Amino acid sequence: MRPLLAKAQALSALHRHFISVAPPYLAQTSQILGLQSGTLSVAVANAAIAAKLRQLAPELVVMLQNRGCEVSGIRVKVQVSFQRSQPAAIPRKLGKTAKDALNELSQTLDDSPLKLALKKMAETKN
Fold this sequence. Notes:
Elements: H1 2-21, H2 24-27, E1 30-36, E2 39-44, H3 47-66, E3 73-78, H4 96-108, H5 113-123
Parallel strand pairs: 2-3
Antiparallel strand pairs: 1-2
Helix pairs in contact: 4-5
């Protein structure tokens, strides 16, 4: 188990270094697959991201080397099925001021679906 744990820790450290040197839009849409013979393999979701990453690869290699990573090249793989997990959406809550404003607005409207919707929004407990 130790060799497996050591490899996982090395990949995790390499991933952190990659995230810190790559532009945020590339880092968020990329996943480190492995390091073999000095070549870093990176998976991306589409060809546009792959093209940009290939264009920046020489600069990224130098930056990774400056951080002590033993990387001599970057190989980019397009994996359409690869999707970065999206953070769970947190429902937004209306404050008292917003609820009061919605309530006031609904009172100025004639009877309509919009008026009912505004009243419902103002009455929610969230």
